[in-house]
Write a structure and sequence with these properties.
This protein has helices spanning 2-35, 65-95. The chain is mostly helical. Keywords: Membrane, Transmembrane, Transmembrane helix.
């Protein structure tokens, strides 16, 4: 019975890591899409974004409604990534299998 539980745990860890990889790439795609949808007149390489286009994600006033939707999806994907990587690492640390 112990081997069955170990196989189930291993499958869960692999599934969590694979989901984390997909969430990571989703976050990148949604971040790029959000940054490309700024309000008219906002310069991505200007003072509004402190000369870093990625800072448009941190200031929702710079984004269009479509950009805000992509921003929300980006932050959800980041949360899923943190959960998918953090929970298995926490479980491994608790059980003493983290080396």
């Amino acid at each position: 019975m112990t081997k069955v539980l170990a196989a189930i745990a291993l499958f869960g860890f692999v599934a969590a890591w694979c989901t984390g990889v997909v969430a990571w790439f989703s976050a990148i795609v949604f971040a790029v899409k959000a940054v490309r949808r700024t309000q008219a007149g906002v310069r991505l390489w200007g003072r509004e974004t402190l000369w870093n286009p990625a800072n448009a994600l941190l200031n929702p006033q710079l984004l269009t409604p479509e950009g805000l939707a992509y921003r929300r999806k980006c932050f959800i994907a980041i949360g899923v990534f943190i959960g998918c990587v953090g929970i298995p690492l926490l479980a491994a640390a608790i059980t003493g299998n983290l080396k």
